[in-house]
Amino acid sequence: MLGTLLTFFAVGLITLVVVGIVLSVVGIVLSVVGSAFSLVFGLAGFLLFKVAPILLVGWVVLKLLDRRRGRGELTASDRDWLESGP
Predict the structure, then answer these.
(1) 27 and 43 Cβ atoms separated by less than 8 Å
(2) Can you state the percent helix, strand and coil of the chain, rounding each to 5?
(3) How far, in whole angstroms, is CA 39 from its chain's centroid?
(4) Which tens digit of pLDDT belongs to each residue from 2-40?
């Protein structure tokens, strides 16, 4: 169930990023075609206020899940891989 929720979160995140970039670029092209400063400020604002908070929330969730799992523990597949050797 947690995997499904994280998958939905990832799909929503990717959708928001793609739609935001497309709308940002279309808005910049339609409003000011020749201004490089508009493009830079629009993209910087998008990254700062749309992408960065979502990445921060994802990072916090992964850190909490990692802390809950325990750092020093190896999974069975990791242990088998380490013991198989060359």
Answers:
(1) no
(2) 85, 0, 15
(3) 22
(4) 676 777 778 778 888 888 888 788 777 767 665 666 667
DSSP per position, the chain:
-HHHHHHHHHHHHHHHHHHHHHHHHHHHHHH-SS-HHHHHHHHHHHIIIIIHHHHHHHHHHHHHHHHHH-SSPPPHHHHHHHHH--
Residue-level pLDDT at 78: 81
Q: Which of 13, 22, 86 is nearest to 56 (CA)?
A: 13
Task: Please name the amino acid found at residue 32.
Answer: V
Question: Rounded to an integer, what distance in angstroms lies between the CA atom of residue 14 and that of residue 60?
Answer: 18
What's the confidence (pLDDT) of residue 72?
Answer: 63
Least confident of 47-51, 61-65, 71-75: 71-75
